[in-house]
Design goal:
- The chain is mostly beta strands and 113 residues long.
- The protein has a single domain (4-109), classed as Rieske Iron-sulfur Protein (3-layer Sandwich), CATH 2.102.10.10.
- It is 0% helix and 40% strand.
- It has no helices and 9 strands.
- It has strands at residues 4-8, 16-24, 27-36, 39-44, 69-70, 77-78, 85-87, 100-103, 106-109.
- The strands form 3 sheets. Strands 1-9-8 form a 3-stranded antiparallel β-sheet, with no helix packed on it. Strands 2-3-4 form a 3-stranded antiparallel β-sheet, with no helix packed on it. The protein has a 3-stranded antiparallel β-sheet with strand order 5-6-7, with no helix packed on it.
- Strand 5 (69-70) and strand 6 form a beta hairpin.
- The radius of gyration is 13 Å and the shape is globular.
- The model has no long low-confidence stretch (mean pLDDT 96).
- The chain binds FE2/S2 (inorganic) cluster.
């Protein structure tokens, strides 16, 4: 099984998210590691609208009210727990969830990059 260590869970504040970039040769993969209401979730940091990362400012994934994830390119909003776009140009599409496990406090991807 392919695994990739992303980040120490302790470095992700509760009800907030951190961006992680993994470089694999020339390939760059970006992830959002989110702690939301006692749940940990990993999404690919790729907006379903135009494929860009959500965060223009590093690690700023939430809207001002800290209720939804937010894409700074064209303003799409996503439910934190499901990744569903609830407002914006990709309404009804979703962020891609990633399979992971927490090993010794490290959020570890358990799927191919
Ligand atoms: S790229 Fe995210 S809203 Fe357009």
């Amino acid at each position: 099984m392919t695994t990739t260590a992303l980040i120490e869970l302790a470095n992700v504040p509760e009800n907030d998210a951190r961006g992680v970039t993994i470089k694999d040769g020339a390939r760059v993969r970006k992830f959002i590691v989110l702690r939301w209401q006692n749940e940990t979730i990993v999404y690919r940091n790729r907006c379903p609208h135009a494929g860009t990362p959500l965060d223009w400012v590093p690690d700023r994934f939430f809207d001002r009210g800290k209720q939804n994830l937010f894409c700074t390119s064209h303003g799409a909003s996503f439910e934190p727990d499901t990744g569903l776009c609830i407002d914006g140009p990709c309404l009804g599409d979703s962020l891609e969830k990633c399979a992971f496990e927490v090993r010794d406090g490290i959020v570890t991807l358990t799927e191919a990059l």
